[in-house]
Amino acid sequence: MLPLRTPLPPAQAVAAQRTLPSPRGRAVAALIGACACALHLPALGQEAASAPGAEAPASAPAPATVFELPAERALPVMITLLPRGLRSGRDEPLLHRFRPLVQFSGDASPVSCVLLLPDPESQIAPGQTRPATLRCVLPVRLRADQPDFQLKEGSRVIGAGSLRLPAAPAPAQVP
């Protein structure tokens, strides 16, 4: 229990100490608040900016298409391996079946994936850009307007890339 700085009657002191969060509770509350900010949601205990049931302004942009990609699906990508720097990059090339952590744009947590190169004998040297395939262990959600990602080795960013999304089908022409 946290000590109180001002003396209170015993009943009020017990009630006040129950409302003070523990250090762990404060950390969880800060994390939830940070996630709410990243997702543009109101923080806990705050009212939404608009009243429930109110329509969005007419100038609001249309929501982006969100893709739900299942686990173990082959995702075609273009990857650039960064040369070694102070806090990023890599000295050695990437080989077939390398297992980086992949953090997609707009996603807070990285997911483990397998990097498959077109030729099992090929490699991606630092500074090179090559096509490859990713197979992620968990399902991935990403927006069509943000197909970018980072390759990580632990906390070090070693590369970047973008998902090669399929082109939208052309509208059928009526004769």
Strand content: 25-35%
Strand tally, please? 10
Q: What structural class do helix, strand and pairing data support?
A: alpha+beta
User: Roughly how many Å apart are the termini?
Assistant: 78 Å
The quaternary state of the protein chains shown equals: single chain
Largest sheet: 6 strands, antiparallel, barrel
The arrangement of helices and strands along the chain is HHEEEEEEEEEE
Low-confidence stretches: 2-6, 13-21, 27-51
Main-sheet strand order equals 2-7-5-4-9-10
What is the average of the pLDDT values?
Answer: 73
Radius of gyration: 24 Å
Overall outline = globular
Counted by DSSP, the helix tally is 2
Describe what this molecule looks like in 3D.
This protein is of the alpha+beta class and 175 residues long. The chain has helices at residues 10-19, 23-38; strands spanning 66-69, 74-81, 94-95, 101-104, 111-116, 123-124, 129-136, 140-143, 148-153, 156-163. The strands form three sheets. It has a six-stranded antiparallel β-barrel with strand order 2-7-5-4-9-10. A two-stranded antiparallel sheet has the order 1-8. The chain has a two-stranded antiparallel ribbon with strand order 3-6. A hairpin with a 2-residue loop joins strand 9 and strand 10. The longest helix has 16 residues, at 23-38. The protein is globular, with a radius of gyration of 24 Å.
